[in-house]
Write a structure and sequence with these properties.
Blueprint lengths: L1 E12 L9 E13 L4 H13 L9 E3 L4 E2 L3 E2 L4 E13 L1
C-alpha cells in the first residue's frame, strides 16, 4: 500500500480592486494504492483516516472548502486498486 499526492490548482482570483490580495482555489488529491489481491478494507480504512485529517476550517488564510470524500475504488489495468481522496481548498494571500 502506498500514497500518491497531487495538487491540482484552479483559477487564481483577485477579490480586491486594489489587486493586493489573491485567492487560489484547487484540489488536493491523495490516491491510496494497493495491489488488487490485497484487502479492500485496508485501503478504504486508509482513505477514511486521511479524510479525518482535513476537517472543514474557518475562512482564514487556508481553508478546506467542502468535506473531503473518497471516490469509489478503481481497478487499474496493471493490477492495482486506487481509492482517490479529494479535498477542495482555498488559499488567500
Amino acid at each position: 500500500v502506498f500514497l500518491e499526492t497531487l495538487l491540482l490548482p484552479s483559477v487564481t482570483l483577485n477579490p480586491e480592486v486594489s489587486a493586493q490580495r489573491q485567492r487560489y482555489l484547487g484540489i488536493f488529491q491523495v490516491n491510496c494504492w494497493a495491489r488488487s489481491g490485497r484487502s479492500m478494507k485496508q485501503v478504504e480504512k486508509l482513505a477514511e483516516n486521511i479524510i479525518t485529517l482535513f476537517p472543514i476550517l474557518p475562512k482564514e488564510i487556508v481553508s478546506i472548502e467542502s468535506t473531503p470524500f473518497a471516490e469509489s475504488s478503481l481497478l487499474d489495468n496493471s493490477g492495482w486498486i486506487v481509492v482517490p481522496v479529494i479535498i477542495k481548498y482555498r488559499y488567500e494571500s
